[in-house]
Structure of Phosphoribosylformylglycinamidine cyclo-ligase:
Amino acid sequence: MNQSAYATAGVDIEAGDRAVELMKAHVARTNRHEVLGGLGGFAGFFDAAAFKDYDHPVLATSTDGVGTKVAIAQAMDKHDTIGFDLIGMLVDDLVVAGAEPLFVTDYIACGKVVPERIAAIVQGIANACVAAGCSLIGGETAEHPGLLGPDEYDIAGATTGVVEKSKILGAHRVRVGDAVIGMASSGLHSNGYSLVRHVLLQQAGWSLDRHVDDLGRTLGEELLEPTKVYALDVLDLIRNVEVHAMSHVTGGGLANNLARVMPDDHTAVLQRSSWTPPSIFRLVQQLGEVSQPDIDATLNMGVGMVAMVPQSEVDAALRLLNGRGVQSWVLGGVQAVEGPGAAVLV
């Protein structure tokens, strides 16, 4: 049988169809009752009638990717966890404003569609959507021969959530005296991998299958550790404890991200002595001879999410979060200063 002109150019439509069939069961597991229709249409549908219970519903949206962490997944030929990195980057940017993530759409660009690999990626995305309580209602898989190698791919996505206008969290709620609560990250999450790969794989010359005693596992296993998805934990916190503002610690590090939700004339003073960053952060800093300011501004240093609450709510907040398995502690407090809002590590 002669190949089609498109197949001759490197695009396999039949492989794409096979990938869709393999991912259908994974996508179906994410469906909330508001989702209309199934996979395969031109658009995903979400029934907005659910918003009738809101006095003033406000939609929130976020879009992101996972950066060069995909290079680790490709090198290890393990693709069923990278979806947690994508969903974590998306939904946890919504929940810090108090919004409930509703649905996600994803985009996978690859050099060659390998149905089983695409299905594994979507399986991870779907697992993370279940963990976040949102639906995967659509997506796109694009084959780009000549632009990406046969084993190369990149993923991105977008999410939409909803929040009652009067309950939006942010700098306008922060008060002097608020406690800053830190929530432990699961590791590097999905930021700073260009630095991490440069230091560990290029400068130090370590291989991904190298067992690192300080990590208790191979380097590759550590670097591929999925991003912690905080969405349901944070939403439970917001429902049960007075929360003024939150920050998702991603690119830019802890202080820079926290400064984004600090009002003028307020600063969050964070105590370095309140926690010990996991070993992977120390390894990157030492092997790469990275200065403290540089590493603070690049990696999360073991803190993936931050909440600001009144002092009277600290015990309840810690009890709830730790009870849900989210390691949490008092990271610092909010003080009055002159000038723009800021956060500092001391």
